[in-house]
TrEMBL record:
InterPro entries: G_AIG1, GIMA/IAN/Toc, P-loop_NTPase. The keyword GTP-binding applies. This is GTPase IMAP family member 8-like. It comes from the Eukaryota. One of its GO terms (molecular function) is GTP binding. Keywords: GTP-binding, Membrane, Nucleotide-binding, Transmembrane, Transmembrane helix. Residues 17-213 form the AIG1-type G domain. The chain crosses the membrane at residues 223-242, 277-301. Belongs to the TRAFAC class TrmE-Era-EngA-EngB-Septin-like GTPase superfamily. AIG1/Toc34/Toc159-like paraseptin GTPase family. IAN subfamily. It comes from Sinocyclocheilus anshuiensis.
Length: 313
């Protein structure tokens, strides 16, 4: 990555990179678009400001400006609480944008005084970008004109907000989007530059996003397959109890063949070993087949994604 110049500010040397890519995240109505327009500056309202989004609204809207010779790209996103937009559509558009615009920093926009659950956006970021991206995230509070005390004092009085800041990079800033004073933007850019420097100027790329999506998908599959295995075990054990407790061993063998070893061991340990094997009921047999099929598909998918991860690495 080419470094454009170095500047000395307050005794510290900052390396100014030729461009800066910012993504705005937050709940609907938090002030993302207004904050984006404040960063972009000028009289224009490049990013459409609304209190809500419809399905026709662009999920991700990029805009550009130049500040002191540095090109800044601001990417506005749909509200994280917007149920009218499918999460898969959001993920697809984010991936498309990152093909040409790797991200330097995420701004988690939170409206001061908002009564909605403030931890929800952090959870969304973790579930879609991965926990590591939080170290690239600055919390940007809006409606600073309504703040009667300093932001530090306010955070000290609100443990929930401080917890959100702490889960991210620890950096935060306040915007008054009604104020045309560019000082607040300059101070934010300095904080962003410091965070980039701390992260070694490494950007969050399309490859990072894809890998995170694969890892999160595998994690969900782990939970899903265990849930199915436990459900099948419950059905089989209930059927065995009605039939005298026999036939569980056969079910354990099927589970073991499907790759669900722990569930099979548990079933075998509790199964009576006397008398002829009893036939499993229709419900138990169907449950076993479901576990076997899901486990087979799961392990095939794991093998495929592991190969893809090896190629990307």
């Amino acid at each position: 990555m080419q470094i454009k110049r170095e500047e000395k500010r307050n005794g510290a040397v900052f390396r100014i990179v030729s461009d800066l890519n910012i993504m705005l995240l937050g709940l609907t109505g938090a002030g993302k678009s207004a904050s984006g327009n404040t960063i972009l500056g000028g009289d224009r309202k490049t990013l459409e400001e609304r209190n809500y989004f419809t399905s026709e609204t662009k999920i991700c809207a990029p805009a550009h400006t130049v500040v002191d010779g540095q090109t800044i790209t601001v990417i506005d996103t749909v509200g994280l609480s917007d149920t009218a937009v499918k999460i898969t559509d959001v993920q697809t558009q984010i991936e498309q944008i990152m093909q040409n615009t790797p991200l330097d920093v995420f701004l988690l926009v939170i409206k001061l005084g908002e009564t909605k659950e403030k931890r929800e956006p952090v959870k969304w970021i973790q579930e879609n970008f991965g926990a590591k991206v939080l170290k690239r995230t600055i919390v940007l509070f809006t409606h600073g004109d309504e703040l009667g005390v300093s932001i530090e004092d306010h955070l000290g009085e609100c443990q929930t907000l401080w917890s959100v800041v702490d889960q991210c990079s620890g950096a935060f800033h306040v915007f008054n989007n009604k104020d045309e004073d560019r000082t607040q933007v300059t101070e934010l850019l300095e904080k962003i530059e410091f965070l980039r420097r701390t992260n070694g100027y490494r950007r969050y790329t399309e490859q990072d996003f894809k890998k995170t999506q694969k890892d999160l998908w595998l994690k969900k599959c782990d939970i899903f397959i265990v849930a199915i295995a436990l459900g099948a075990a419950a059905v089989i054990l209930a059927g065995a109890a009605l039939r005298g407790g026999e036939g569980v061993l056969g079910g354990a063998d099927v589970l073991r063949a499907a790759g669900v070893g722990e569930a099979a061991t548990m079933m075998a340990s509790v199964a009576p070993r006397t008398g002829p094997a009893a036939l499993l009921g229709a419900a138990g047999g169907a449950a076993l087949l479901a576990v076997a099929a899901c486990a087979g598909l799961y392990f095939l998918a794991r093998k495929y994604l592991s190969r893809e991860n090896d190629k990307s690495d």
